[in-house]
Design goal:
Radius of gyration: 21 Å
CATH superfamily: Cytochrome P450
Strand order of the largest sheet: 1-2-8-5-3
Number of domains: 1
CATH architecture: Orthogonal Bundle
CATH class: Mainly Alpha
Helix content: 40-55%
Length: about 400
């Protein structure tokens, strides 16, 4: 790990390959100099002059601050004004509950909440357990395998696909589309093509579910209505399913992959979990804190000046909240750079905070608890199957995830 302060906060290049491989040192440098810096950040295919917030208290406050808007049309205008390359039109972002403010956000979230219930999530437990067992049955003890490919990426997309009613043969398409949208080195044209392909397919799938509804969340979303009879219109429905399908597996896949790697690097904590399986739910929270699946929150813009310490962010600016950095703030989490699976839950921000808190958090937690519980139960011995310096983190501004994790388990 890079020692705090060894990276200059002023020279930090957040779009570099090196930053993607080790962002923690850079974020520590920003925190040491007030926690707020104006940097060049990339979202979709647009490079923006934006403010990055790294301290826990500021991050938590801003996630719930009504002076920061997520309205898609306002964001588009401000993105255009703050683009690094003047005149470059920012990529269009569909309107969803993720990119809307109240009252639209309130209505959309409530409609999704009618379908994405705790009961519906809990009914998936036996299916998730069986699916995990089926995958782990293919692991030959002592034989190297890529845990990211075999388990971390495979299981969550099966689960969210099952939940939404997306046929298994199309899961790979969603994975490819999400990869294109998240990559820092993916062109604007490739991102737009991925979005078009996804929406073309979802239009077909929604048509099928309207005619032949099933016991799945997509059918429930089609049928969900407010007390006044209001339903999701077609664009809202397509955008919502696209959001849930992608967000519903990327973060969980990252939790499984980076969480396993984190435990491999902390053998004392791995032994503690193996000897005390009841610690697994709390360990999932600590793994989420220690290596947050989301590096940056999705973008926001200021509708009024916002003062953080001795820095005032003017109105009409783009703001990114560094969840990865906030979760390593020692002012909030003592000895924050140390993994401690017995650490009391102290409100990590990996699922956000406020009205945009991740609606899929209970499902991600459930999957994490099941996967780590079964890995510990079935395999007493874990080890890396390649030198640690061969591991590569994804070149993504949004997600913090390993490309691959070759391991041996027995």
């Amino acid at each position: 790990m890079t020692a705090p302060g060894s990276v200059s906060a002023d020279d930090l290049d957040m779009l570099s390959w090196g930053f993607a491989q080790d962002p923690h040192g850079g974020y520590a440098a920003i925190r040491e100099h007030g926690g707020v810096r104006r940097r060049v950040v990339k979202t979709l295919a647009t490079e923006l002059h934006a403010w990055v917030v790294t301290g826990y208290d500021d991050a938590r406050a801003l996630l719930a601050d009504q002076r920061l808007s997520k309205d898609v049309e306002l964001l588009r205008d401000i993105m255009q004004a703050r683009a690094v390359r003047s005149g470059e039109p920012p990529a269009r972002t569909p309107r969803t509950m993720l990119f809307s403010d109240p009252p639209d956000h309130t209505r959309l979230r409530r409609l999704v909440g009618h379908a994405f219930t705790a009961r519906r999530v809990e009914t998936l437990r036996p299916w998730i357990e069986k699916s995990t067992d089926d995958i782990l049955d293919t692991v030959e003890p002592g034989v190297p395998f890529d845990l990211v490919e075999r388990l971390a990426m495979a299981l969550p997309i099966y689960v969210i696909g099952e939940l939404l009613g997306v046929p298994q043969e199309r899961h790979g398409d969603f994975r490819a589309w999400s990869t294109a949208l998240a990559g820092l080195d993916t062109t604007a044209e490739a991102k737009q093509a991925a979005t078009r392909q996804a929406f073309t397919y979802l239009t077909e799938l929604v048509g099928v579910k309207r005619d032949q509804p099933g016991d799945d969340m997509l059918s429930a979303l089609i049928q969900a209505r407010e007390e006044d009879g209001t339903r999701l219109d077609q664009p809202e429905l397509l955008s919502m399913v696209f959001l849930l399908m992608n967000a519903g597996y990327e973060t969980t896949a990252s939790l499984i992959g980076s969480g396993t790697y984190t435990l491999l690097r902390a053998p004392d904590q791995l032994r503690l979990l193996r000897d005390n399986p009841g610690l697994v739910p709390g360990a999932v929270e600590e793994l989420l804190r220690y290596e947050s699946p989301l590096n940056l929150s999705t973008l926001r813009c200021t509708t009024a000046p916002v003062t953080l310490g001795d820095v005032t962010i003017p109105e009409g600016e783009i703001v990114f909240i560094a969840l990865l950095a906030a979760n390593r703030d020692s002012a909030r989490f003592p000895d924050a750079d140390r993994l401690d699976v017995t650490r009391p839950a102290q409100g990590h921000l990996s699922f956000g905070h406020g009205i945009h808190h991740c609606i899929g958090a209970p499902l991600a937690r459930l999957e994490g608890e099941i996967v780590f519980g079964k890995l510990l139960e079935r395999f007493p011995h874990w080890e890396l199957a390649v030198p640690e310096d061969e591991l590569v983190w994804k070149f993504s501004a949004q997600f913090r995830a390993l490309e691959r994790l070759p391991v041996r388990m027995s």
